[in-house]
Automatic annotation (TrEMBL):
Gene Ontology CC annotation, any one: mitochondrion
Upper classification of the organism: Eukaryota, Metazoa, Ecdysozoa, Arthropoda, Hexapoda
Keyword Hydrolase: yes
Family: Belongs to the enoyl-CoA hydratase/isomerase family.
Function of the protein: Hydrolyzes 3-hydroxyisobutyryl-CoA (HIBYL-CoA), a saline catabolite. Has high activity toward isobutyryl-CoA. Could be an isobutyryl-CoA dehydrogenase that functions in valine catabolism. Also hydrolyzes 3-hydroxypropanoyl-CoA.
Protein species of origin: Anopheles merus (Mosquito)
Gene Ontology BP annotations: L-valine catabolic process
Keyword Methyltransferase: no
Residue intervals of the Enoyl-CoA hydratase/isomerase domain: 99-420
EC number(s) reported in the record: 3.1.2.4
GO terms, molecular function: 3-hydroxyisobutyryl-CoA hydrolase activity
Protein name listed in UniProt: 3-hydroxyisobutyryl-CoA hydrolase, mitochondrial
This protein's UniProt keywords: Hydrolase
Catalysed reaction, written as an equation: 3-hydroxy-2-methylpropanoyl-CoA + H2O = 3-hydroxy-2-methylpropanoate + CoA + H(+)
Gene3D superfamilies (UniProt xref): 2-enoyl-CoA Hydratase, Chain A, domain 1 (3.90.226.10)
Length: 440
């Protein structure tokens, strides 16, 4: 990335932008001597050398010129890679009392690995008592965050790596859920799994026409983690269980209509939205800015699942996954048949775990739910369909997972209980400064 700005009294001023298209943070600074001059005076005083002509061309591409004049940006921003991030996977900016975190792994659809989770957590902890607003966004226009880097966990069969990843990720999810600064996630593009955990527990989630939300974990032999057991049961009716079992994809406005996003803004307006959020001085002003940019929840076409909500509530209210299948078979509609076809592709064990997870999680606070999910995650890393699901869908991509067991009828209830039970070494998930320990 080329950043154009002027270094004024040791303050680096760079242009506002929502999406950083490149992966490098190379600064091109136009240096002035002492007191800053206006953009027009600056242009008049710069001789038309070859270097200055090149800088003007860069400025034009960055949106900092108008009729050949350099335009002074309105907000001072200091961008850097997060401390210890030699690869620039996470970029951080401080704009006065505001902070901006940018995921910078576009070739992997901004999927988060252990290093990135640690960097985000450290930046948020550093800002917890000094910032009033923190915005989280991503590089590129395809994905906010396509999930956690599960290949790294399953390919090595390293349970210790799984422990470190899930414990660090879940602590980040808990921090987001109780964060003192106003937390705003721009979920522009694919938002799945770990990307949901980075956004849904925050105060504001901004969807765009490019947003694609899903919790597809049952298709890879896992369960909707990152606090899925907490937020999915809190969606309308049985919509959350339906989304968690099927991995159904919500797109654009439907992410807002479902209640996953708090606001919907066209992607072309995100840069202006960010600039105005960075200029706010109070929580009420943040709310006002978001409302001004966002569409109403009932705007546009009808919710994609509106006609099926009654059927979803009736079928997915059944007490077991097997009973859900029976309800769908009795329904017999085209929607029910398609849903059954989809569910038959999922890990039977994962579906039973997920149904119980959401039933329990609906009565828990977020931290208690994450403690439960940590048990589930470590047990899955030790022995489950997780590795086989990742192989079939993400590594070999033959789309032919060999689930064990292969059918719902063969799922052992005692084994399901073991997933929710204490870990073999008793090493449970704990949070910093959590006060009285929540019990499972």
């Amino acid at each position: 990335m080329v950043a154009v700005g002027r270094k004024l009294n040791q303050v680096s001023i760079v242009p506002l932008s929502y999406k950083h298209r490149g992966t490098h943070n190379t600064s091109c600074i136009i240096t002035e001597s002492t007191a800053p001059r206006t953009a027009s005076n600056f242009n008049r005083n710069v001789k038309p050398t070859k270097t200055n002509t090149m800088l003007r061309a860069i400025a034009a591409r960055a949106g900092l010129s108008r009729s050949g004049q350099l335009v002074a940006p309105s907000v001072c921003r200091a961008m850097s890679s997060a401390a210890g991030d030699s690869n620039g996977l996470v970029l951080t900016e401080e704009v006065g009392s505001k902070g901006v975190i940018t995921l910078n792994r576009p070739k992997a659809l901004n999927a988060i690995n252990l290093e990135m989770v640690r960097l985000i957590y450290d930046a948020m902890k550093q800002w917890e008592s000094t910032k009033s607003v923190v915005i989280v966004k991503s590089v590129g226009d395809k994905a906010f965050c396509a999930g956690g880097d599960v290949r790294a966990i399953t390919e090595t069969s390293n349970v210790e790596l799984a422990r470190k990843f899930f414990s660090t990720e879940y602590r980040l999810n808990a921090l987001i859920g109780s964060y003192r600064p106003t937390y705003i996630a721009f979920i522009d593009g694919i938002t799945m799994g770990g990307g949901v955990g980075l956004s849904v527990h925050g105060k504001y989630r901004i969807a765009t026409e490019r947003t694609m939300f899903a919790m597809p974990e049952t298709a890879i032999g896992l369960f909707p983690d990152v606090g899925g057991g907490y937020f999915l049961p809190r969606l309308e009716g049985k919509l959350g269980l339906y989304l968690g079992l099927t991995g159904f994809r919500l797109k654009g406005r439907d992410v807002h209509k479902a209640g996953v996003a708090t606001h919907y803004v066209e992607s072309k307006n995100l840069a202006a939205l960010e600039q105005q959020l960075l200029a706010t001085t109070s929580g009420a002003e943040v709310e006002s800015v978001l409302d001004r940019f966002s569409e109403k929840r009932d705007a546009g076409a009808e919710f994609v699942l509106a006609k099926q909500l009654q059927q979803i509530n009736e079928c997915f209210s059944a007490p077991t996954v097997e009973a859900i299948f029976q309800q769908l078979e009795r329904d017999g509609s085209e929607w029910a048949q398609n849903t059954l076809k989809l569910l038959h592709k999922m890990s039977p064990t994962s579906m039973v775990v997920t149904q119980k997870q959401l039933e329990l999680g609906g009565k828990m606070d977020l931290k208690t739910c994450l403690k439960m999910e940590y048990r589930l995650a470590v047990h899955h890393a030790i022995d489950s369909d997780f590795k086989e699901g990742v192989r079939a869908l993400l590594i070999d991509r033959d789309q032919k997972p060999r689930w064990n067991p292969a059918t719902l009828a063969e799922v052992d209830p005692a084994r399901i209980e073991q997933f929710f039970g204490p870990l073999p070494d008793g090493d449970e998930l704990h949070f910093e400064d959590e006060g009285p320990k929540a019990s499972l």
